[in-house]
Amino acid sequence: MADPKATKETVALFQNLDKLAKKHILFGHQHATEYGHGWTGEPNRSDVKSVCGSNPAVIGVDFSGLSGRPKESIERTKESLRKQIVDTYDRGGVTTAAWHFSNPASGGGFYWRDSVSAPAVALLIPGGSHHEKYKEILRTVGDLAKSVKGKDGKLAPLIFRPYHEFDGGWFWWGKPHCKREDFISLWRFTVSYLRDSLEVHNFLYAFSPDCTFKSEADYLERYPGDEWVDMVGVDNYADFGRDGRYNLEAGIRKLKIVSDYARKSGKLAAFTETGLESIPNPTWWTATLLKALRSQDMRLTYVLVWRNDARSPTHYYAPYPGHSSVPDFLQFYQDPYTLFETDLRNVYRKKLL
């Protein structure tokens, strides 16, 4: 593991996810319990739970609101995140945190916008003009991490997935906007500052490019090294039906590269983001996703689909009651290979029940 001082619960989660991946995969959904299709902020609710009776096993949250905003707004974000993370931990579920990080050196938000965005990676690393500002932002992340205590008094572990899809150009940390060495330096500094200076010991660190790679060497081009990573993943919408295009063979090949690397390096592997917006294919869950996941001898800890927007009639990636893919999703849910929150037992203890 990247953190030799990781809490007992974080070590147990790492080991138990590794064990479970031999026969199962956890199903995840971004922002599942915060809001869903046509609703927001209702306790004990998720669209997935409304469909199948269980929350997803993995709940995605986002650290996007922890910087670039007024102090009061950041505090509100921290409080909301704390509640989501603690509630999931108390229910026995797993939390993963993405970071749509607003550019700390310019406007443009987390997306790269020509003529607006600064290539900030080189500015954030040691010696850069915004390095002290970056440390201040990481202190906010660290404060949150050290505050998420469950009913048992223990800190909830988090799978932290910063700088995702870095091989594309759509985010300011993307490959066209920074040197390989600077990206690796930023990753290593981020882990070392959180772990060694701020003493955050409840994070598992997940590395997840988009799906542009074709080989293990491609995949590892910006990899910071095994000592800086706990989980390797991939985000892949393109091969799984986006814009009506399917290339399952390519999608499976990429998942296998990730799974194989994890097995030989002692890491966890995950399908960190996927999905089909609006799910126009009513058998996507079994005929596309499950088929891909089970087609090879892969060990993937979880698969996470993207969020269900509360206001948009079309921006959703998990079914809600009445959706045409519900019957197929229920087959996906009932398959012994897939695990949901109610299937999990003691993932934060050394011995799984």
From TrEMBL:
SUPFAM superfamilies referenced in this protein's UniProt entry, alphabetically = (Trans)glycosidases
- GO MF terms held by the record: hydrolase activity
Query: What InterPro entries does the record point to?
Result: GH (IPR017853), GH26_dom (IPR022790), Glyco_hydro_26 (IPR000805), MANB/E (IPR016714)
Q: Looking at the record's lineage, which domain of life comes first? A: Bacteria
**Which residues are catalytic?**
165 (proton donor), 273 (nucleophile)
- The answer to whether the entry has keyword Transmembrane helix is no
Alphabetic keyword roster: Glycosidase, Hydrolase
Q: Where is the GH26 domain?
A: 8-342
Membrane-spanning residues:
none
By sequence similarity, the record places it as follows:
Belongs to the glycosyl hydrolase 26 family.
Q: What protein name does the entry list?
A: Glycoside hydrolase family 26 protein
The source organism is Spirosoma soli
